[in-house]
Predict the structure.
Amino acid sequence: MSDSATLRFNNKETQLPVLTGSEGERGINIEKLRSQTGLITYDDGFGNTGSCASAITFIDGERGILRYRGYPIEELAEKSSFIEVAWLLIHGELPTEAQLRGFSGLLTEFQVLHEDMKYHFEGFPPNAHPMAILSSMINASGCYVRELTGPYDPRKFERHSARLISQVRTIAAFAYRKSRGLPIIYPKPEYKYTANFLHMMFSMPYADLDLDAAAVEALDQIFLLHADHEQNCSTSTVRMVASSRANLFASTAAGVCALWGPLHGGANQAVLEMLEKIRAAGDDGSRFIEAAKSGDGSHRLMGFGHRVYKNYDPRARIIRERCEAVLARIHRSDPLLDIAKKLEETALKDDYFLQRKLYPNVDFYSGIIMRALNIPVEMFTVMFAIGRMPGWIANFREVMDDPKGKIYRPRQIYTGSTERHYIPLGERK
Ligand code: CMC
């Protein structure tokens, strides 16, 4: 017997099918709810709404599990690389040697932006936030790919997705150089993805950056850990935009904007700013924790809490473990790490945080590693965007490959005025 749920409304019963995912998650299929009952559902913030079926990423927030295409994040973080994971997310399987070579070749082929793009960068004011530049430039770089304006072509997808993954990194580095008034550094074909990014960020025309293998590995891992996270705010945005059949570059540029906010990807910047403020105030973290419990939202403990994880975010655990190791390997120490650890220790013993199941999330420690790599704080969310690009692309592809191809169009419960009539300007009170 296939499962169904019964809804009784106005003395009429309606059977609603229950769907079961491959990991046993269950959801009531309400596709026919409105046509059969006249009702819609209301779910503020979508906390109980499955907006799609997806085969990309699995999260069990209660048990702190995250898997990309079935592979545990811990295994991928230990054994894989960002580029291999990018392929896995987009294509569904780990690449063969030939596939990985081909993909790397495409990343190299596309790493340089069209030369005219340099003039776009000049249009931004000094100190423009690099997330604004990133979003605009992704959209602008799409204009140089003529076939993107036509219908989605699966045969071209591998090239388009490689182009986007490669160029987001070049755009990000150029945005940083522009914001600091520094000359642009072009990528080098002999460097791998993450090393090339650090080169474009920090080399000078007269002296190449002395690349530190530990730094490259740490940043590659940060990209990998951010590569996908199922239907979060930015990924849902990408899917929403893609559902209108907007192109890959336009859809992911929208994802960058959604990611920018401090409750989402912008939290990594907010965490560092919070830690700096705590240090400047001479607080060891305990006064801030008290303020964070006030409930007025003005002092949230940034980097804590998650809509889905009601347990330790597995990415935070990996980053926390690596944080000290990375600082030691690149011969740095950071007083902000001590404050972060003290905040965590205090919060995890405090009833306020325990009762609400608020644990450190991915952003809590990632900023400390990025700071150690000299990445400026305003670039932190850009790092998240570079990392998340493969996940957005994989989700874009799923939307495009869905044979039903429905545009995403939620409904609402209207709470405004009922019908009323226009009053001419002179008669209004
Ligand atoms: N500090 C203090 N209180 C908090 C926090 C926090 N960081 N997060 C949630 N709460 C409280 C909140 O005030 C509420 O309390 P009450 O029940 O008394 O009203 C309760 O916990 C539930 O909070 P919520 O805002 O309803 O939870 P949510 O699922 O809507 O929000 C969140 C999730 C991530 C937006 C939120 O926890 C938050 O603002 N955290 C800080 C920002 C942050 O670190 N964001 C990064 C998320 S992970 C990276 C990513 O995927 O983007």
